[in-house]
Amino acid sequence: MPTLDQTQQLFWKLITAPEGVAPGFAALGPSEGGIAATLLRDHPRLSAVERLDIYADMYFYRIRDCLKEDFVAVHAVVGEAAFHNLITDYLLVHPSSHFSLRYIGQHLPGFVRTHVLGEQRPYLADLAVLEWGILDAFDAPDAQALDVAALAAVPPQTWPDLRFTLTPSLRLLEVGWPVHEIWRQAQAGEVPIDPQPAPTPMRVWRQEWRVFHRQMDAVEAVALRAVQEGAAFAEVCEHIAAFDSDVASAERAVALLSQWLGDGLLTSYRCE
Fold it and tell me: Is the dihedral of CA 245, 246, 251, 257 positive or negative?
């Protein structure tokens, strides 16, 4: 009699067979074929393959529906039929490998970049990047935002050497299209309009229970990337100064720091 483990492995192998249950049956080796013959019997109303096909379809549709929820804007752009075909192609290359469906879409942005739908709509992969970033930020670890009063107490002479820690939920995206506009249209139930290409640095982060995203200008993108890489505040100011005069760069540095504090992006500081 087959063990429970053998039974589960066989069931899993058949309902996830890339070409379907029937080809999966045909591809079984002698040992697994013998187990299948013992466990799976035809019924007057439905054959063993037809009954397993029901489970296989349920498995696929469950994954497709999860991805539809995770990539709402991508689905809105391409439509139901094309999204269904996209996910079919995707799962053939990237079958589920984790017990949680939370991670099933992690390879979709890269996959879309080489898919025919990505060739037809070059911005589609960047849209998937944004939607995955939003999902990723939502599930990131919690972190207490830096207290403004505590930072105000830092002696002025130590400011050049300050290094900040960013919230774990922050995602810095470098996309080539203003895909946040398409995301907004999809969320509003509007028909998405194909955008024009434009370098669009973005940041995605969670503040309390909500995930936010916004486009950054070149100055903020460079400065925040420097903070992420561990640069001291004086070095961050130097990056900003490359865009503005000394006076304007100092004002911009203060404004950015205030904005990051307000958005909860900074969680701690150290002086090195």
Answer: positive
pLDDT digits (tens, 9 = 90+) for 195-237: 999 999 999 999 988 999 999 999 999 999 999 999 999 999 9
Residue at 113 is within a domain: no
pLDDT digits (tens, 9 = 90+) for 24-53: 767 777 777 666 666 677 777 778 777 877
- What is the CB-side half-sphere exposure of residue 168 using CA atoms within 13 A? 9
Whether 82 and 164 map to the same domain: the answer is: no
Same domain, 157 and 217: yes
pLDDT tens per residue across span 171-200: 999 999 999 999 999 999 999 999 999 999
Number of domains in the chain: 2
* Complete edge-to-edge strand list for the sheet that includes strand 210-215: 171-175, 200-207, 210-215
Shared-domain flag, residues 206 and 97: no
What is the span of the domain harbouring residue 252?
148-271
Q: In this structure, what token pair is assigned to residue 66? A: 């999860």
